[in-house]
Amino acid sequence: MIKILMLILLCFVGYSMLQGMINPKPKKEKRGWMSRRQPRSSEGEQMVEDPQCGTFIPLGDAVSANIKGKQHYFCSKKCLKEYKKNHK
Length: 88
Ligand SMILES: [Zn+2]
What we know:
With 88 residues, the protein is of the alpha+beta class. It folds into 2 domains: 2-43; 47-86, no CATH class. 58% of the residues lie in helices and 18% in strands. It has 3 helices and 4 strands. The protein has helices spanning 2-22, 24-43, 77-86, and strands at residues 47-49, 56-58, 63-67, 70-74. The strands form 2 sheets. The protein has a two-stranded antiparallel ribbon. The chain has a two-stranded antiparallel sheet with strand order 3-4. The longest helix is centred in the N-terminal third of the chain and has 21 residues, at 2-22. It starts with a helix and ends with a helix. Mean pLDDT is 82; it is low at 36-41. Zinc ion binds at residues 50, 52-53, 55, 74-76, 79.
C-alpha cells in the first residue's frame, strides 16, 4: 500500500515538475508581451517641440500648423497664434 502511495506521490511530483517546466514559459511570454506592449503605446508616441514656448507635447495632442511650408506643432492654439504673429 505504501509503495503505491509513494509511486503516486512520485508520479504527482514528477508530473507537477514537468508541468512547471512546460507551463511557465508561455505564461511568461504572454506577460512579457503584455507589459512590453503597454509602454510602447505611451512611450512610442512621438514628442514634438512647441517652437513658441519650448514645451514637448505628444504628437497626438499637438496643434499642427503649416507655416511657410514647414510643419510646426504647438501645445495650444494660443501658442500657434503667437508664433504666427512673430513670424510674419
Ligand atoms: Zn506652447
